[in-house]
Specification:
The complex is a heterotrimer of chains A (326), B (138) and C (565). In chain A, α2 (12-23) packs antiparallel against α5, α4 crosses α8 and α8 packs across α9. Chain A is α/β, with parallel strands linked by helices. Chain A is built from eleven helices and ten strands. In chain A, the strands form two sheets. In chain A, strands 4-2-5-1-6-7-10 form a seven-stranded parallel beta sheet, sandwiched between helices. Chain A has helices at 2-9, 12-23, 29-36, 56-69, 124-134, 171-179, 196-210, 238-255, 257-290, 295-303, 309-325; strands at 44-49, 74-80, 89-91, 106-112, 138-142, 159-164, 185-188, 213-214, 219-220, 227-229. By secondary structure, chain B is an alpha/beta fold. Helices cover 40% and strands 22% of the residues of chain B. Chain B is built from five helices and five strands, in the order βαβαβαβαβα. The longest helix of chain B has 14 residues, at 70-83. Chain C has 565 residues and is an alpha/beta fold. Chain C has a domain at 86-463: Alpha-Beta Barrel (TIM Barrel). Chain C has a nine-stranded parallel beta sheet with strand order 5-4-3-2-1-9-8-7-6. In chain C, α13 (347-361) links the parallel β8 (331-335) and β9. Chain C starts with 7 loop residues before the first helix and ends in a 9-residue tail after the last helix. Classes of the chains: A alpha/beta (326), B alpha/beta (138), C alpha/beta (565). Chains in contact: A-B, A-C, B-C. Chain B binds chain C through residues 15-21, 24-25, 27-29, 31, 39, 41-43, 45, 67-73, 76, 96, 98-100, 115-117, 119-121, and chain C through 122-123, 125-126, 128, 133-138, 141-142, 206, 210-213, 250-252, 338, 341-343, 375-377, 451, 454-455, 458-459, 462, 468, 470-472, 478, 480-481, 483, 485-486, 488, 560-561, 563, 565.
Chain lengths: 326, 138, 565
């Protein structure tokens, strides 16, 4: 396929268009992704999550500059929220990454959540596949950062960085809710601000309490997440952060190859499950439509209490997938 | 079952003027109309604007300029789009333009110029009528 | 003993009569209802049908209003106001090359202008020389291109700099441009002790609104304090900061937001100068303000009166200033560019006239009136003359300058003045809580407040709730209008001239001067490391504006506006 060639060659326009099609869930992208898949597995994925205003974009900008200095190519997926009222979005993370705009080896893509929860977009995994196949060494994902429960990042990043900042009120409470477990590195940005030491201390206390068990791989973890203090806008602490990423990478790949394998396997499983779920759902919708019905009309009957969602789902699966095959 | 194709629009300010009131109001209005807006703010060079448009695969570029330097930056942007085979991206301008410059800008491919006093609703209507999301590449 | 203006019995009686009158009003409305569902100012502040002594019953004349030239300066900063000296008619001017602008200055002076005001082009405003790749297409378009001390010499050729006062609208590179002004004046034989004028030099409002950004907030403020310190010791007649609400308003703020954010910027500068070790009464008298005069007549007058009272109270109570001069909010006013329309541009004369009248009744010290064609371009000679004549007609024909603060005592104006102060104080409390203006800027707080107001206003225009004649009421087309043309050729000529200038310089002397500037920038902020003396030496040695600003950028880093929505 021509497009596959173009992506492998690193053609910016072709990649950009493919990313758009993926984001819009164009069905034919599946066959392209299938072709690209064998070329993946080389990129290292770094995730940034944390509350709004913590300085994630500035950190992304800074570590991009670091990786460019040591000759690595970089792709950035920057996620911003979709307005639940209009379905539109303003994607402004790029602003802080301007110095990389003309660097041919940095590809920045802004994406809107489009109703997806969990901090990423529905398309993030597939976009990583494309950038990986394209040959980018480092793929940085910046989550939407609007609140809690942004744990999805851990399923696609090798190293997940949780960013916090002093003085955001209940920030520690907020990051406690679910994301303390996923952080491999913690950053306290704007560390020159009042209260920075306190934030570091609080983080340290929480980490010392309940760190040992890693949800994503289902086993005890002996990696001790470092807490790095940064002042991203001044470039202070960036070398330390990059060093922490390198150490985590080395830990995963060299010291704990078995654990790394598990991380990768977990990621693969996640991506596979998502794809399977998605494909099954689409297939079912097609079949329902073939029967001359629609999701909406079934919902209407459920709403009228003629049907219930549990039986109708079982019934459809039985009729379409089970009895058909027999 | 592809989702509805969403318009992606780049709002950028070329040149050195920092008066971003109009650009910001427009960006919000476009968002509220349901479009995805990539906002890169002030002080953008033509090269930066075109690179962003390519990487973000936008359907339209909205250029806001009040400094009068449009006779340099607009043609340069059109030239760069052409060099990158991206002439299909619709380019419009908003801001202050001497009347006699408008036909010249249209002649180089700027599709529309919105002058002071343009209504947000009219601009959005124009976008809906004149900018269609690109067809799937695959 | 208090100086309340109404006795308790009078208030009681008025209250009773007022209630009866309100009943009559309701009755009358049944025959003919009100024109609008809601009456509000251009800033969307709702106003009542009538104001009476009841609205100002708690006012104390001496405490809240007082006399002109006396604390709290509500009625004006000078005792004699316009009876002794009219405001300075100061037209913002700059176009093309230094020679072309110099010609415009002489033209304006010959028509009765009384002070100079320089508009620079965008490369100059951003600290780039005309030959920078970022400056393509910008040279001389929105103001004059100044790269070198020679350009500065051409700009003021034939003008006595000890007699005229010069205002320069320049922000991140303010120290550099001021150094060029001082160096040129000294080369021409004038004494720096006698130079009078203003540099805008207000970096905070750039982060908040205008986005002419070069350096991060911290070093930006350090440079501002350097200029204040230098001015205090070396150029005593110079206003070292013009704390500006104008651009905040043009970016879409309400009158209250303009007032509050600007006053808070002022608080921030005073705090920073005190931190440097300056005595408040040594420098505060040289701080000046710059307000917008928008289209809502009474709102603007109230805002300017409130500004004076607020600043006086803040300087006295918060900063313990002793010298009355430190408490004076002296200010320049410009009529609102954003109120003008491209449609039927001659209507802009009427808008500007009304806004200028508000500025005069608000007690301004100097005034710029916009030209009718400023929606299109920097003004033509024809248009700028009408704008200047507007001020002269108001000054000499209309009689508004005969009596000091003639609107004092108006129930509406006094009540609105109070409300401005109250609502602005609410913002000031909030900003204090947030840890000051720099912290608030980092949180995008003032930027978002302004963006929200701008968007709300635009929606009100679209829904017809706010009216602009020629736009959403009696709409009309944009007509062809003869506007000023800037020859694109001047860019090439300016670059050529700049390159020749650079070749003539003594490279060793220049490098030494720039090294000294860098050393001072890298050092701890203090008098020994004040950038001004080094800058004056550097520009005398031929350093260009950009060469000095590049030192700043290298030492302090650059800044990009985060533009949150």
């Amino acid at each position: 396929m021509e497009i596959v060639e173009q992506v492998l060659r690193g053609d910016v326009r072709a990649v950009a268009r493919l990313l758009r099609d993926i984001d819009d869930q164009v069905p034919s992208t599946r066959s392209i992704l299938k072709e690209l898949y064998p070329y993946t597995g080389k990129a290292y994925v770094v995730g940034f999550t944390g509350p709004p205003g913590a300085g994630k974009s500035t950190l992304v900008d800074q570590i991009t500059a670091y990786y460019r200095r040591i000759g690595k190519t970089v792709a950035i997926i920057a996620i911003d929220p979709t307005s639940p009222f209009s379905g539109g979005a303003i994607l402004g993370d790029r602003i802080r990454m301007q110095r990389h705009f003309l660097d041919k080896d940095v590809f920045i893509r802004s994406v809107a959540t489009r109703g997806h929860f969990g901090g990423l977009t529905k398309s993030t995994h597939d976009m990583i596949t494309v950038f990986d196949a394209m040959g980018k060494d480092i793929i940085i994902v910046e989550t939407v950062g609007v609140g809690q429960g942004e744990v999805e990042i851990a399923d696609c990043a090798h190293t997940t960085i949780v960013v916090s900042v002093p003085g955001l009120g209940d920030d520690i409470q907020a990051i406690k809710a679910g994301i303390m477990e996923i952080g491999n590195i913690f950053v306290v940005n704007k560390a020159d601000r009042e209260g920075a030491k306190k934030t570091v201390q609080e983080l340290r206390t929480i980490l010392d309490m309940g760190r040992r068990f890693r949800m994503d791989i289902g086993e005890m973890d002996d990696w001790e997440p470092p807490i790095v203090e940064t002042q991203a806008h001044k470039g202070i602490g960036i070398d330390e952060l990059c060093d922490a990423i390198e150490r985590h990478k080395a830990y995963l790949t060299a010291q704990k190859p078995e654990q790394f394998r598990k991380v990768m396997l977990k990621r693969t499983l996640h991506q596979f499950s998502e794809t399977l779920r998605d494909e099954l759902f689409k297939e079912m919708v097609r079949r329902i439509e073939r029967r001359g019905d629609t999701l909406e009309s079934i919902a209407e009957r459920i709403f009228q209490k003629e049907l219930d969602p549990y039986s109708v789902s079982r019934q459809l699966i039985k009729e379409e997938f089970i009895s058909h095959e027999q | 079952m592809a989702n509805e194709r969403k318009l992606r629009i780049l709002v950028a300010k070329p040149g050195l003027d920092g008066h971003d009131r109009g650009a910001r109001v427009i960006a919000r209005a476009l968002r509220d109309a349901g479009f995805e807006v990539i906002y890169t703010g002030c002080h953008q060079t033509p090269e930066q604007i075109v690179q962003t448009a390519l990487q973000e695969d936008v359907d339209m570029i909205g250029l806001s300029i009040l400094s009068g330097a449009h006779n340099y930056s607009f043609p340069r942007i059109m030239e760069l789009l052409k060099e990158n085979n991206a002439e299909d991206i619709v380019v419009v301008g908003g801001g202050i333009f001497p009347l006699e410059d408008i036909p010249k800008l249209k002649a180089i491919g700027i599709r529309e110029i919105f002058t002071p006093g343009s209504k947000l609703d009219d601009i959005i209507k124009w976008v809906r009528e004149n900018v269609k999301p690109r067809k799937a590449a695959a | 003993m208090g100086t309340r203006m109404f006795s308790e019995s009078a208030i009681e009686r008025i209250e009773k009569e007022y209630k009866e009158w309100l009943q009559d009003y309701e009755k009358a409305l049944q025959k003919l209802p009100e024109r609008l569902e809601r009456f509000s100012t251009v800033s969307d502040m709702e106003v009542k049908n009538l104001y009476t002594p009841l609205d100002i019953k708690n006012k104390d004349y001496m405490e809240d209003i007082g006399f002109p030239g006396c604390y709290p300066f509500t009625r004006g900063v000078q005792t004699t106001m316009y009876r002794a000296r009219l405001w300075t008619m100061r037209m913002f001017a700059g176009l093309g090359t230094a020679e072309q602008t110099n010609e415009r200055f002489h033209y304006l002076i010959s028509h009765g202008e009384t002070g100079l005001s320089v508009a620079f082009d965008f490369p100059t405003l951003m600290g780039y020389d005309t030959d920078s790749s970022l400056a393509r297409g910008e040279c001389g378009r929105c103001g004059v291109a100044i790269d070198t001390i020679e350009d500065m010499q051409r700009l003021f050729a034939g003008i006595n700099l000890e007699e005229v006062t010069t205002s320069m609208t320049i922000n991140p590179p303010a120290s550099v441009i001021w150094a060029m002004y001082i160096a040129n004046a000294e080369n021409e034989g004038f004494s720096r002790k006698k130079l009078g004028g203003t540099i805008q030099n207000d970096c905070l409002k750039e982060f908040i609104a205008q986005k002419t950004l070069m350096l991060p907030p911290e070093p930006s403020i350090r440079l501002v304090v350097d200029t204040v310190e230098f001015g205090t010791k070396e150029v005593p007649r110079w206003n070292t900061i013009s704390i500006s609400g104008y651009h905040i308003r043009e970016a879409g703020a309400t009158a209250v937001q303009e007032l509050a954010f600007t006053i808070y910027d002022g608080i921030t500068y005073v705090e920073e100068c005190i931190k440097r070790g300056l005595n408040v009464d040594d420098f505060a008298g040289r701080l000046s303000f710059f307000w917008n005069s928008h289209i809502d007549f009474f709102e603007e007058i109230a805002k300017m009166r409130a500004a004076r009272r607020m600043w006086a109270r803040i300087m006295k109570n918060r900063f313990k200033a002793q010298n009355p001069r430190s408490m004076m909010c002296r200010f320049h006013v410009q009529t609102a560019g954003c109120s003008l329309t491209a449609q039927e541009p001659y209507n802009n004369i009427i808008r500007t006239t009304t806004e200028a009248l508000a500025a005069i009744l608000g007690g301004c010290q100097s005034l710029h009136t916009n030209s009718l064609d400023e929606v299109y371009m920097i003004p033509s000679e024809f248009a700028v003359k009408i704008a200047l004549r507007t001020q002269q007609i108001l000054a000499y024909e209309v009689g508004v300058a005969n009596v000091i603060d003639p609107l004092a005592g108006s129930y509406y104006v006094e009540a609105l003045t109070d409300r401005m102060e109250e609502e602005a104080n609410e913002y000031i409390r909030k900003l204090d809580e947030m840890g000051g203006m720099v912290a608030a800027i980092e949180k995008n707080y003032p930027q978002m407040e302004i963006a929200d107001s701008a968007y709300r206003f635009q929606q009100q225009i679209e829904r017809g709730e706010k009216v602009v004649i020629g736009i959403n009421m009696f709409p009309s087309e944009i007509p062809p209008l003869e506007v000023l043309k800037i020859d694109p050729e001047i860019e090439r000529l300016q670059i050529e001239r700049l390159h020749k200038f650079k070749e003539r310089r003594n490279k060793v002397k220049l490098q030494k001067a720039l090294d000294e500037l860098r050393r001072r920038c890298e050092g701890k902020p203090c008098w020994e490391n004040n950038v001004m003396p080094a800058l004056i030496e550097a520009v005398k040695a031929g350093a260009t504006e950009q060469e000095c600003c590049d030192v700043y950028r290298e030492v302090f880093g650059t800044y990009t506006d985060p533009a949150s929505f």
